[in-house]
Design brief:
501 residues, alpha/beta, Alpha-Beta Plaits, Rossmann fold, 3 domains, seven-stranded antiparallel beta sheet, 36% helix
Length: 501
Amino acid sequence: MKSTVYIFLGLVSAVIIQPDLAAAGEDDIRLLDRIQERLQERAVRRAQLRAERRSELSAEKTAESQAERLLASQLQKRLEARIAATQEKIIALRATAANDPEKINRLRTLVSQKSADKAAALLHKLKTAQKSRANQKNHLRALQQQYALSIVERDKQFHLIRSGEVIALNISAKGRAAAAELGFTQTRSNKLDAIDIMIDVFTLKTDDGFAETFHQLKMADPDGHYEFNQIYRVSGQALTLPPETAHNSAAQPDKTKSSFTIGVIDTGVFATHASFKHLNLTQQNFGRGKDTIARNHGTAVSAILAQHGAEELLVADIFSGPAGIGDSESIIKALNWLVQSGANVINMSLAGPDNDLLRYVVQAVTAKGHVIVAAVGNEGPNGAARYPASYDHVIGVTAVDQNMAIYEKANQGSAVDISAPGVNIFAPGIADREYFSGTSFAAPFVTAFIARHNDGTKPFDAKSAWQNIIVNTIDLGAKGPDPVFGVGYLTPDKNNPAWNK
């Protein structure tokens, strides 16, 4: 029932320039307008042909295109169509006038005051186009060097991945030989006993042609399971963080389980906060950092779970590395640890792209009876499907406010199973209690509800958990299940006074 949709969004910056042009004749005004119209027509046409010509681009133009998309992604995403159109206009303008001083002078001296604003903007673009491209290249280079991240294209969408890394699931001798022949080096290997799989990470030293080499590996071993090490982010609006504080995560969880144990895959937690005094809290680092890092997001999510009755929290920090980003390898390892440690219900307030290996592991975990609850994401009503919430057997949670109105940034679609409070949630952060909004903070309400209705002695399947939920909802929106609210709003638990606090 869950569907996959990919939408890539970019950002376009506007430039304001003070006009400084002399008046001139109407003929030149019309000339300038015709030039602008032709450039706009060419830009639209070039945008339409981009997909068809992508395979024909040279390595240099491909790098420039990736740099532009990366810049858009790092600036928090707006409409890709707009950035493509703007960049093509810049290219067209430069080709038309950048190398023609006489034409630039004519624009300066012959355009009337009526067209001054338009001309000034065009001149600014002509002068700064090359500088802008250089900045984009530097931005891509910084991302690769500082965070070891790259961009790959899949199904006409672009995704951040760990540079040069491929994850293999239960790789065969044939697959190992093919990887070595293509230049991959095995860098990590882990046997995940709780879910009975082996994962190996292979690295290609150069990003040049990485996507093509990855494709060749899959062709050489069609029976193998290979995937990029894709990037995932938390799925909620946390406030600006104070300096990161490291906490020791070496301790293993107490083997004597309470009746209310919840697994959490998130950021690290400020474990000494008063919200956690009444429970056992164990943290384990699965990110790229040296230890767990306490951050607002994980602290707030865990505090909501604690407030709603959790007696033990097992927190897997997958965001401990630079820039606070996680990856599919970390999530898979975290799921294995939580299953091994006896967390029957697992909260995942994070979101990212579809990933074949993550889908396989999620299916393996839920098949053992463990329940996974995930935030549906905060990319808006038309946002791309986010995972793991969009996988079958994962309970996807959206956020509503105190008036039961949908959170304006919440994703919509078949991933949405149920609604819960998630707007202006008052919860602890690193420094103090703050207000948080996002589907991230709705998910733990549902997670805690499910855990309270489990006897804690053994895992139970999502179907049983879902039956407990569906009889405790208020239908919102269109009658019956819908892509905005799911089956409806999870009603307050009469046995839990903390619900309305």
